[in-house]
Amino acid sequence: MDRINKKIVTAISTIILIAIVSTPATANQQDVISLAGQWGFNLDNKAVGEKENWFDADLTQSITLPGSTAENGFGDDISVDTEWTGTVVDKSWYTEEKYEKYRQPGSIKLPFWLTPLKHYVGPAWYQKIIEIPNNWRDKRIVLFLERAHWETKVWIDGKEKGSQNSLAAPHQYDLGSLAPGNHRLAIRIDNTVKIDIGIDSHSISDQTQTNWNGIIGKIELRATDPVWIEEVQVYPNVQNKTAKVHITIANNTTKTADGTLTLQAKTSHSERQHRPAPETIDFTASKPQTKIEIEYPMTDDLLLWDEFSPNVYQMTATITTAEYSDTKAVDFGMRQFAASGTQFTINGRKTFLRGTLECCIFPLTGYPDMTVTGWLRIFRIAKSHGLNHMRFHSWCPPEAAFTAADQMGFMLHVECGSWGHSLGDGKSVDRFIYDESDRILKTYGNHPSFCLLAYGNEPGGENHIKYLTSLVKHWQAKEDPRRLYTTAAGWATISQNQYQVIPGPRCQYWQANLTGRLNANPPETVTDYRDFVTKYSVPIVSHEIGQWCVYPNFDEIKKYTGVTRAYNFEIFRDDLKENHMLDQAKDFLRASGKFQAHLYKEEIESALRTPGFGGFQLLDLHDFSGQGTALIGVLDAFWDEKGYIKPQQYRRFCSQTVPLARMEKRVWTSDETFNANVEISHFGPAPIEKAITLWSITDAKGCKIASGQLPAKTIPLGNATPLGEIELPLSNITNAQKLLLAVSIKGTDFSNDWDFWLYPDDIDITIPKDILIADKLNRKVRKKLKKGGKVMLIPAPDTVSPDKYGKVPPGFTTIFWNTQFTARQEPHTLGILCNPEHPALAEFPTEFHSNWQWWYLVTKSQIMILNNLPIELRPIVQVIDDWNTNRKLGLIFEAKVAKGKLLVCSIDLQGNLDKCPVARQMLHSLLAYMQSDYFDPKLQSEITEIEKLLTTQPNH
Asked: Based on the number of CB atoms within 10 Å of its own CB, is 936 exposed (0-12), middle (13-18) or buried (19 or more)?
């Protein structure tokens, strides 16, 4: 025993390090029997199976496992009476006439999330005859069920072996010793929500993954000797270059077991190989469980784990006694994830969380991918967009995700499976969260990718602060410093939290409508969140930033070939067709997508500009299928590109190292001097020594207007490091144009750019004598048109007609999250669409989509609803509507009325023109167009049709 005492750890390390726990491994493959394949099966929708002893009966149907009931074609057809596990906020599908045809039996199509082909909530029975081999006689046999949903009960030969209800950890049943030969195994799985963790929680909800029934991972019988290794946990210590190993040896016999324990570490996923010397000690296991602690030397050659060098080790523990033996191998990583003030560190080096959410969105299966290959693809795509972090919103991923993240150097924030439920009221959810978190920590706690843990999302209830404070203390009392702990994502910012996830530091708040920064304030690139940072002593992660929508990609529909269908997309497509704009669908996608990318760029750069900031979590890099259909990703629900931005373009503003430019405004005039303060956010593997910053300003054709370099300096790790200032007098540039400021670090791939606009400070906006500008359809206007004259109608403020939804809010940004789930939160639109080559815009520099200069026009406009005009009408400047309403909207259109030529512009081009060079330029361009031969509208419209666009029509 003296040799053991020398190895026992004398103090708990305060360094926050992590290691990989893999699925418990046995000594060799003959100790595992896979039960994958065909099983007997029956649904038990009346819940009579237990009373009728189905565990002893022959089940009449067959199912393939791993898999779900839906995958195997079992369950109910969808109907208006389907009871969903999830909140339908907008219930108009159940009542409105427009959805009547989608409520018919056999033609059910849902607008609020994907439509499953089959739906089943209740008990289901799975049965298999298992054969125990002769060499398993007297062995301890365990039934291993990976990712069962939700509650399982197990019988062997008619004898109940208990029940389990973890959503995150494998269900493991100790079957004891079974005689060689055949045995009847029966499993009852019930996906009924018996513990109210919140029906929108992504661990159980139909919103995304579906509330499935089945087993989707490994299904195995595992045999061990009656003395075996129950658990191995590895606690790396980077500073001491050791790994403290906790081993639990179990003994089912009545005798004391004396033997030897050997530990051997070696790299399992690394560019270099490292194999420290083994450590062997004697042990005595006289109790049902014997715990041993060993400080294992990793030597000076140890390899650290981080996003740049994801070195993974495997620790193999082997016990040998006179009669028994066992081996268990777990992966781990040598890394220290910690908080230093308001920023995170990894291995003592500052890091910044650039994250996205994963809300269990797997449209083909309706449940999460269980393969390492599948998760490697997801993390590679995320890393290709410059991310290094993923938050699992109200669920815990499977083993394969942790393993893949370990190999990719990807940091994970894990949650215990609940969202928004009332906590601390003494209900079953309170105990479940404690138990589930303990299971998560035990099962996945060694993974180096497992850096952060929270209860779940946005907690509720009068007692949630008290409850979550106790929960965090419970985690911290385990003295397991391999990760950081917080109460929840969203709120409950208690002093015990080691980091905070708060919704404050972002561009748009829930229900902010048009008061959010990007809608209410002129565009700039100076805003940051330092005021938030100073309020806290621990790192802040901004909660669910972005949520900027894009128009649906109807080509995506054909990709839904699994258990769900994108019938919501079909509803939106049908509606667009009925409104005679189906031919514009791809243009709506491209235009809204280009604009969406601009919004995400500013969202991310605002975080990167903030000194001392901890990180952000996007909602989202890819689309969210539920909650009214939230098309908030630059990638679709399958993590595929949509065609309007490439990963390398995204990385320019979202990466380990991002040049930044602080510009007080995006619009300048020729009598001003352009100014930008250049900074950099750098969280690479090391400082950049003697960095030279290059800059250039080019026009829309790529012609260089000015360039230069800033003084060389060493770039440290951190945010908001100043690099220098750029100034450029603009007096020599006389034409209105878009310019591009580009900044790069010489000799690296790190570069970024920003659009800004230059307008003449003095431009002719004199109204030609042959053009009448009016704000009403008065007699003077009618007379002018009857005589074949030219009229520009700029409707008076607040005179554009509404429809049944009211007036269209003049929002600049795209839709936030979506209108179904937010009770039509403003804005309701997705930016503009225009043809930059249209002669009406010849003097107004623009792309085909919204960009920052359009803020000055859209926010000072009235958006016109043009559905009652001829269906052939295509506005000169169109506004892309919400896909739920698909109205033809516009800011500028033209028509032939009587003998005259009418141009209607609902942008305010008359007020405060001396202070708005963008509006001046638009007015100048439209007047030039109306004076030219190009102004010759082909579409004939009646004056009565134009009248309907306005709420009041004077008689004089």
From this structure: exposed
Confirm if 482 and 518 have CB atoms less than 8 A apart: no
Nearest CA-CA partner of 413 in 539, 302, 547 = 539
Tens of pLDDT, residues 849-907: 999 999 999 999 999 999 999 999 999 999 999 999 999 999 999 999 999 999 999 99
**DSSP code string of 810-830:** --SS--BS-TTTTTSPSP-EE
Calpha distance 150→121 (Å, rounded): 10
The letter for the amino acid at 535 is: K
Task: In whole angstroms, give the CA distance from residue 113 to residue 206.
Answer: 8
The secondary structure of 610-647 as a DSSP string is STT--EEEEE-SB-B--TTTB---SB-TTS-B-SS--H
By the 8 A CB rule, do 755 and 767 touch?
no
Residue 898: other Cβ atoms inside 10 A: 18
826/572 Cα distance (integer angstroms)? 19
Geometric angle at alpha carbon 849, from 846 and 852, rounded to 5°: 65
Q: How many Cα atoms occupy the beta-carbon half-sphere of 930 within 13 Å? A: 31
Region 20-46: mean pLDDT is 75
**Do 926 and 763 form a contact (C-beta atoms < 8 A)?**
no
The C-alpha atoms of residue 312 and residue 20 are separated, in whole angstroms, by 8
Across 399-429, b (16+ Cβ under 10 Å) vs e yields bbbbbbbbbbbbbbbbbbbbbbbbbbeeeeb
Please say whether the beta carbons of 77 and 118 come within 8 A. yes
Q: How many CB atoms lie within 10 A of CB 944?
A: 10
pTM (2 d.p.): 0.95
pLDDT digits (tens, 9 = 90+) for 200-216: 999 999 999 999 999 99
Query: Residue 78 and residue 838: Cα distance in Å, rounded?
Result: 48
- 943 by DSSP, 3-state: which? helix
CB atoms inside a 10 Å sphere around CB 731: 11
- The pLDDT assigned to 420 comes to 84
- φ, ψ at 770 (rounded to 5°): -85, 5
In 264-339, which residue ranges form alpha helices assigned H by DSSP?
none
Tell me how far apart the alpha carbons of residues 532 and 616 are, in angstroms, rounded to a whole number. Answer: 13
Q: What percent of the chain has pLDDT above 90?
A: 95
Identity of the amino acid at 831: G
The candidate with the shortest Cα–Cα distance to 899, out of 776, 779, 789, is 789
The letter for the amino acid at 60 is T
- The 8-class DSSP code of residue 914 comes to G
Task: Quote the mean pLDDT of the chain.
Answer: 95
Count other Cβ atoms within 10 Å, centred on residue 256: 12
Whether residue 209 contacts residue 360, with contact meaning beta carbons closer than 8 Å, is answered with yes
Cβ neighbourhood burial of 381 (10 Å; 0-12, 13-18, 19+): middle
Q: What are residue 161's phi and psi, to 5 degrees?
A: -110, 10
Which CA distances in Å does 516 have to 385, 532, 739, 831?
Answer: 26, 17, 26, 16
For 465, other C-beta atoms within 10 Å of its C-beta total 17
Distance from chain centroid for Cα 383: 13
For residues 559 and 362, the answer to whether their CB atoms sit within 8 Å is no
Would you state the structure tokens that stand for residue 851, as one six-digit string?
């960009």
Contact call for residues 138 and 201 (beta carbons, < 8 A):
no
Element of type H or E holding 142: strand 140-145
Helix (H, G, I), strand (E, B) or coil at 312: strand
- Residue 223 dihedral angles phi and psi, to the nearest 5°: -115, 135
Question: If 0-12 CB within 10 Å is exposed, 13-18 middle and 19+ buried, where does residue 828 land?
Answer: buried
Number of separate helices (H) and strands (E) present in the chain: 14, 49
**How far apart are the C-alpha atoms of 152 and 149, rounded to whole Å?**
8
Strand order in the sheet with 673-682: 657-662, 673-682, 718-729
Phi and psi, residue 784, nearest 5°: -60, -45
